[in-house]
Predict the 3D structure of the following.
Amino acid sequence: MASLGTFLLLSAFVVCSYAGVISVVGARRGARRLIESGIGAFYLVAALMTVASGVIVNAFLVGDYSIKYVHDYSDSVQPLFYRITSYWGGLDGSIMFWVFLLSVFGSIAVFVNRERHRELIPYVVAVISTVQMFFLYLMVVHRNPFTTFLTEVPADGRGLNPLLQNYWMVIHPPSLYTGFVGMTIPYAFGMAALITGHLDDSWLRAVRRWTMFSWIFLSFGLTLGMIWAYEVLGWGGFWGWDPVENAGLLPWFTATAFLHSVIVQERRSMLRIWNVTLVILTFFLTIFGTFMTRSGVVQSVHAFGSDPILAKLFTGFMVVILTFSFGLVIYRLPLLRARNELDSWVSREAAFLVNNWVLLFSAIFVLFATMFPTLSEAVTGNRLTVGPPFFNKWMLPIGLFMLFLTGFGPLLAWRKATLSNLRDQFLWPTLAALVTGGAVVAFGVRIWSSGICFALSAFVTGTILQEFWRGANVRRGVTGTDIFTALVGLVGRNKRRYGGYIVHLGIMLMFLGFAGTGFKKETQLQLKLGQQTTLGDYTLRNDAVKVSDDGQKQMVTAYISVFKGGKQIDTMYPGKYFFRKHESEPTTAVAIRRSFAEDLYIVLAFQPSDLAAQSASLQINVNPLVDWIWFGFAVMAIGTGIALLPERTYAFALAKLPEAAAGTASATATGAALLLMLWLSSASLLAQHEAGTGLMQPAKNALEGQMRDEIGCTCGGCEHEALSKCVCGQADQMRGELRAQVDLGKTHEEIISHFIAQFGGQQFLRSPIDKGFNRLAWLVPYGVGAVGLVVVGMTARRWSRHPDKDSASDEPKDPEIEERLDDELRNLD
Amino acid sequence: MTHRYIKVGLTSAVLVLAFTGLLWSTLRDGTEYFKYVDEVLPQRQAWEGKPLQLKGYVVPGSRLRKPDTLEWKFKVQNNPARASESGGVVDVSYTGIVPDTFKDEAEVVLKGQLGPDGFHVVKDGVVAKCPSKYEAAASASKS
C-alpha cells in the first residue's frame, strides 16, 4: 500500500506540472483544447489526492505499522475515530492534507468559474498547480508520509498524544487548514487577473465569496483553538500569544482587511493596488505561518523540532512568491490606477482605509513580536523573548480602536459626511455609549480598558440596531409590509452589508468576553481533605480525592463542593486522566461551572504524594464573561452565513442577482465538508460499536426503567444510546451496575451520584442535568425552534399575499432617506 | 502638489517616530533574556536581578516539595540528565502549581530572577517539556 501511496503522490506531481504548463501554453496560443486538457489534468490531481488520502486513512484503519507515519501517530487501542484524524496529526500528513484540500477547492473554484471567467481560468489552474507542486515536491523528496521501515516492522504504533484525542482537536485542524488553503484561491484569481490584464472588478467578484468562506473557517479554527486551550489544556486562559496561535492570526488580519477594502473598490474604484496587495499578503502569510511553525525558526513550547531542509525549501518558495507577485503588481501598475480620489477624511471610504491600516498594523506588530526572539538573536546575539504582557500592552489599545471603528465606520456617509447627517447618525449610538460608560463608572469598575470596552460595545450595538431599524422602517414605508418582512427584505436585498453587521455584533460579543479577563480572579493552593477556601463569591471544600479506572484510563478525581451565599450550589469534579501507554503524560479534566456572568474553573494538579491524604493541589479561576466569546463566534457564523447564502433564499423579496452561482458553489463546498465529517463520524462510530450479549433483562421497577432511559452507554461507539436500547458489552455492564444500585434500594439522586463517582463526571447522562449553564443548553433548541416558527409563519403570510396589493403603495414616504438608502445599497452586493 | 507631499511626509515621519518610541519604551520592560544555565553562571553577578528565561534540565531526584503546600525546591542543570557532564547547576525555588510534564530530567524554561541564593521563579513561570516523541504531533495539529 505504501508504494501505491508514493506512486500516487509522484503521479500527482507529474500531472500537476502538466496541468500548469499546458494551461499557460493553451492560453498563449488561444488553443481551447489545450486549456481544456489542462483543466482535465487539474481535476485529475484532485482525484489522485483523494485516492492517496484514502490509502493513508486505510493504512491507519487497518494499522499498517510498516509505514513510519502510521506507526508514529496511531496505535491499535486508539478509538477508530481518532485513527482517522491521525491523518493530519503529524507534519508529513498535514502537508498531504493541505494538498488534498487545495486540489479539491481548486477544482471546485475552476469548475464553477470556468465559463464566466474563461479568460482567467488557465492562469488560475497554473498558479494553483504551482503551489501544489511545491508541496508535492516537499513530500516526495523530503517528507513522504508513505515512508516505510526497511527492516523490523514494529507490531504496534506509538499512539497519538492524548491531548489531541479530544473532540475539539478533531475539528480544529481541518477547519484552520480549510481557512488557510482557501486563501490560495483568491490569490490564484488575483494573479490570473494581473497576468492577463483583465483588471476590472470581475475577478474580485469571483473571489469575494471564497475569501468570506475561508475567512469564517479561519475564524472558526482560531475559536476552536481557544476553546481547546480553555477546556483541555487547563491553564485558565484561552489565548497565550504562542507563535503557533499567532501564525493562524496573521492571515486573519489581512483577510479581514481585504473583506473591507474590497467594498471600497467595488463602490468607488479606489484602492485597487491595495486590494491585490492584501490578497497576496494573505496568501503569503498562510505560507509563512506554515513555515514558521514547521521549520523550527521560532521557538515555542509546542513548536516542531527544527528542520533546516524544510526551512530552506520554504524560504526559497516564499522568495519566489514575493518576487513573482509584486513583480506582476509593479508591471501592471498603470492598469491599477484608482479612478477616484478620497473626497474627505470624514467619509465611509476613509473609515475603511483607517480600518485597513489598523488591521495591517496588527498583522505587522504580531509578526514582529513573534519573530522578535529570532530577530534579536540574529542582530545582537542575545536571545530576548517577549511574553504575553508585551502583546497585550499593544493589542489592547489597537483592539479597542478597532472596536470603535466597528461602530464608527457604518455611520459615515460615502464620499463626504455633512455635519447634519453626522448629528443625525451619531446621536443614539453615542448616547448609548455615554450611558453605559456612566453606569460603568457608577458601579466603580476600576479597570479602564474593560470599562472603555463596555462603553464601546454599547456604541457598536447602538450603531447596528440603528442601521437595522432605519433601514427596515424605510423599507416598510416603501413596500407597505410589516416591520419584520421589511427587515427580512432589507437583509435579503443587501445580504453582505447586513450580514456584515451581524458579524460585527459577534465581534462585539467576543470583545465583551475579552474585556471580562480584566476581572479574572485566580488562586493556586493546596486543599487538605475537608479544608475550605474562598474565591470571589464562591467557597470551595475538598470532599474527597478518589481513583477510578474505566479500562482505557485511570482517573484521579477531586470532589469539590461549591458554596455560594452559604448554600451548596454544586459539586465539581476536576480530574487527571492517565491513559494507558501514556501514563507519563496525564491529561487534565477541567471542571467548569458555566454561566453568562462568569465561569468557575477548577484544575486539579496531581501530585502522587497527595493521594494518600486525599489532599488536592488546585488552580481555581473565576473567569467573567468568557462564554460570550463562544457566543460571539456563533453570531459571527450566522452573519457570515447570511452574507454567503445564495440569492434564491431571499427570492420572495428580490430579483435574482448574478452572484447566485458562486454562492451555490461555496454552499455546496460547505455541505460537502459537513457531509464528509458526518460520514467519517458515523462510519467510525458504527465500526466501533461492538456487539454485547444482546440480552436485556426487563427492568425490575419503574425507577430502573426510568434510569435506563436517562443513562446513556459510554462505550463511545453508539451515539450515546440509552441503556434501555443499547446492546453492546459496555451497556450490559452498566445495566448490571444499575441493577445492583437499584437492588441496594438507593434513590434516583443517590444512583446518579454513584455513577458520577464512577465516571468522574456527568458524561454518562443522556441529557445534561437541568441547572446552571446546562439550562441554557436546554433552552437553545426551543429558542431556535420558536424563532424558526416565527420566520416560517411570516414568510407564509408574505407569500400568501396578493402581489398587486404589495406594489400598491410604492410611493416612498420619505424621499430623502429612501434616496440615501438606495444610494448606499446600489451595487453593494 | 509639493505642499501636499510635505504634509504627507511630515505626518508619516511623526507617526513613524511615535510608533518607534512607543515600541522601544514598551519593549524595554516587556522583554526577558533567554539563556542557558551555562551562559548565566560564569557572570552570575551580572545577571542577578535581570528578567530571565532560564533553560535547563531538572536534576533527577532534586525535586522537593514541602508537604501539603505548593512550595517547591529543585535543581536545574545545563545539559540533559543523561549527558556525560551535567554542566552548571542552579538551585531553584518556586511556589505554585507545576505542569504535569515537570518531572525528573524534564527540559524546562523558567521565568524569573537570579538571586544570591538561587533562581526565583515567578508565578506560572515553570514551562516544562518532557523529552517526548509527541511534541511534533502537538504542534502539527495546533497550527
DSSP finds 26 helices and eleven strands in chain A. Residues 453 and 515 of chain A are 6 Å apart (CA to CA). The first helix of chain A runs from residue 2 to 29.
